[in-house]
Amino acid sequence: MDAVMQDNILAMFSINYKMADQSIMEIHVYATWDGKTIFHSRAHQMKLQMERDYGIYKS
Questions:
Q1: Given this model, what pLDDT does residue 33 score?
Q2: Burial 7-28 (b: 16+ CB within 10 A, else e)
Q3: What tens digit of pLDDT does each residue of 20-36 get?
Q4: CA dist., res. 34 & res. 57, Å (int)
Q5: Separation CA 47–CA 13 (nearest Å)
Q6: N or C, fewer C-beta in 10 Å, the chain?
Q7: Which residues contact 27 (CB under 8 A, 6 or more apart)?
Q8: Average pLDDT over the chain, rounded to an integer
Q9: What is the pLDDT of residue 35?
Q10: What is the rounded CA–CA span in Å between residue 50 and residue 57?
């Protein structure tokens, strides 16, 4: 589960960075195992941008 959570953060920030010029408002990340959802996370684009610019993930 720790690896899934780390991958979740990487995926969200990567999408937010690579598609900054797109009109993305919210990002959902799902992790599945044997066809069942074991993890779901979502974040608003503005929250990710604020975390990247001023939060713990600054720089």
A1: 93
A2: ebeeebbebbeeeeeeeeeebe
A3: 777 778 889 999 999 99
A4: 32
A5: 11
A6: C
A7: 12, 15, 16, 42, 43, 45, 48
A8: 84
A9: 95
A10: 9
d(CA 33, CA 15): 22
Q: Is 22 left (phi over 0), alpha (psi -120 to 50) or beta?
A: beta
User: How far is residue 36's CA from residue 32's CA, in Å, rounded to a whole number?
Assistant: 5
Partners of 36 in the β-ladder: 33
Cα 45 from Cα 59, distance rounded (Å): 17
Selected residue with higher pLDDT from 11 and 55 = 11
Are 8 and 30 spatial neighbours (Cβ–Cβ below 8 Å)? no
